[in-house]
Amino acid sequence: MHAVTNIQKFSIHDGDGIRTTVFFKGCHLRCAWCHNPETQRFTIEMQTDTDKCTGCGRCVERCPNGAISLQRIERPRGAGKQGTETVPVAVTDRSKCTVCGKCVNACVGNYRTVVGKEYPVKELVRICLQDQMFYEDSGGGVTLSGGEVMAIDNDYLLTLVKMLDREGVDVTIDTCGEAPWENFQAILPYVHTWLYDVKVMDNDLHRQYMGLGNERILENLVRLSDSGARIYIRIPTIPEVNGTPEAMGEIIAFLKENHIDPPQINLLPYHKTGSHKYRKLGRPYPGEDLTVPTNEQMEAFVRQFNEAGYRNVRIGG
Question: pTM for this one?
Answer without folding.
Answer: 0.93
